[in-house]
Design goal:
Layout: H1 2-25, E1 28-36, E2 39-46, E3 56-60, H2 73-84, E4 88-92, H3 109-132, H4 134-137, E5 144-149, H5 151-161, E6 178-182, E7 200-205, E8 215-217, E9 230-232, H6 234-243, E10 248-253, H7 260-263, H8 268-280, E11 286-290
Parallel strand pairs: 3-4, 3-5, 5-6, 6-7, 7-10, 10-11
Antiparallel strand pairs: 1-2, 2-4, 8-9
Helix pairs in contact: 3-5
């Protein structure tokens, strides 16, 4: 009996040591960098067992281009979860050009475009800053995935797909392997081409009254209002991805509104599955799946 008891204690100790080792292996460290002027990014990484061929996931917060933070609770929790899963993760700040201003139907459409351009510029600058340091930060720059929420998703989609539009053409190019859009839209789906297409995972509420699920005016402004600007949501964008035979997943809530800009952060498993299979392995998938809160 004593011998069995000793064996049990030994096995318990071994299990405990293994637990501590696993916990340490998943410890996540954060470093803050200034990538341009006063704009900062937080870089999240595991402390040990780093795969230098790991992907880089760039997280762009929402907030209507007037608020939000790179280090808000939702972004931090998501960044740490993805870093703990083995990704290099950067949560970035960008210029909030509409801070203290209206971004609704009384905001001129031209000002809205300028806002989208500024966000895309900052995203590009942040990514290029990171890419220049890929060796020291230990990730593969060719495996860069952009993830954005609401305004951040619009910035990400425009940075990737609007490069041939004259208003975005000055923005430097950088390699992108995939996109995760959480309640986002693009200025014009017709700028999605065979040259810039990438796999996209969309989260969206079909009844989103801020950012359209299909094709509609930004904030659903009327044609005679100064802020009238047509945007293309995921239902419209997949028409182009189908045309170019590229992967997409639309995870949608038929009754959902704009809350999927933050609820999507909780679907870490689906996000990891998309990155692993559609982005990294290149497995072809085109599907629309229904989500529930």
């Amino acid at each position: 009996m004593k011998r069995k008891g000793n064996i049990k204690i030994l096995l318990t100790l071994i299990a405990f040591v293994f637990y501590l080792h696993s916990a340490w292996a998943q410890e996540v460290n954060k470093q803050t960098f200034t990538y341009r002027d006063t704009l900062k990014l937080d870089f999240y990484t595991t402390v040990k067992n780093i795969d230098t061929a790991r992907p880089l996931l760039v997280v762009v917060h929402g907030g209507g281009f007037s608020g939000g933070n790179r280090d808000s609770e939702s972004e931090v929790k998501f960044a740490r979860a993805m870093a703990g899963a083995g990704y290099a993760v950067a949560s970035i700040s960008y210029r909030l050009t509409m801070k203290g201003k209206s971004f609704g139907c009384d905001c001129p459409a031209g000002d809205k475009i300028d806002t989208f351009v500024a966000a895309a510029e900052d995203i590009a600058d942040a990514v290029l800053y990171l890419h220049k340091r890929s060796e020291s930060l230990r990730f593969d720059s060719n495996k860069t995935i952009l993830s954005g929420s609401s305004a951040g998703a619009e910035g990400v989609l425009d940075a990737v797909f609007m490069r041939d539009d004259y208003r975005f053409r000055h923005i430097p190019e950088f390699p992108v392997a995939g996109v995760i859009s959480m309640a986002g839209a693009v200025v014009n789906k017709e700028y999605i081409t065979a040259n810039n297409r990438v796999p996209v995972l969309f989260f969206h509420g079909a009844k989103d009254n801020t950012v359209p699920y299909g094709t509609a005016a930004h904030h659903y402004c009327k044609p005679d209002e100064t802020g009238y600007l047509i945007l293309d949501g995921p239902e419209a964008m997949i028409e182009k991805l189908k045309e170019f035979h590229d992967s997409y997943i639309i995870a949608f809530d038929p009754e959902g509104k704009h809350e999927w800009s933050w609820l999507a952060y909780s679907h870490v498993d689906l996000i990891k599955q998309f990155i692993e299979h559609q982005v990294l392995k290149g497995e072809f998938e085109q599907c629309v799946m229904q989500l529930k809160k």
